[in-house]
Amino acid sequence: MRETGCARAKDGLAFILSLIIALACLFIQPATAQMYQWKDANGNMVFGDSPPPGADATDKQIRLNKIVRPETPHKSSPVRASMAKKPEGAASNVHVTLYGASWCPYCKKVRAYLVSRGVDLTEYDVDNNKEKASEARMKSGQNGIPVTDVEGTVITGDDIPAISRAIEQKRREGN
Question: What does pTM read for this prediction?
């Protein structure tokens, strides 16, 4: 059986296109930028594209084509989750204050649990509110986050069972 001219042309075009794509993949490299790290006169760590003369700078390689999920904007005022629809058996009569940060996976875990319980939740981002960061340290006696305050009962870390017990105790006391 003979191939027609069109069939051979299609096969040839597909081969050339595949070859072009393969070669392009070989030569495409991730974009990078030259960055330096050094300490300034006050001892602060500084990053920049050119260090000042005489600075003891360390060369840092940074990839520019990294995809970064934008952070949720946090204000210094509290975030109220009480506006959301309450789940069945909600503990809406229990007020909980959560001190955390947008980048913290443990804070996200605790927040998700508190929202699922339907508590009256106030959140503070300690990265954006130094006064609340200090308040969290005073309540917990440590620097770690998350810090969960269930009407005076303070739980540090992502101890969901302890948070649950505190919520249940406060819910029973409130009824």
Answer: 0.51
Which positions of the chain have pLDDT values less than 50?
A: 1, 65-77, 79, 81-84, 86, 88
pLDDT digits (tens, 9 = 90+) for 2-14: 555 555 656 777 7
Residue 39 sits at φ, ψ, to 5 deg, of -105, 135
Question: How many CA atoms are closer than 13 Å to the CA of 161, on its beta-carbon side?
Answer: 0
Please give the Cα distance from 164 to 159 (Å, whole number).
Answer: 9
For the segment(s) 79-174, the CATH number from 3.40.1160.10, 3.40.30.10, 2.60.40.1120, 3.90.1170.40 is 3.40.30.10
Tokens of residue 7, six digits: 């069939």
Nearest to 101 by CA among 124, 75, 134, 69: 124
- The beta strand positions in the chain, using DSSP E, are 32-39, 45-48, 58-63, 79-80, 95-100, 120-125, 147-150, 153-156
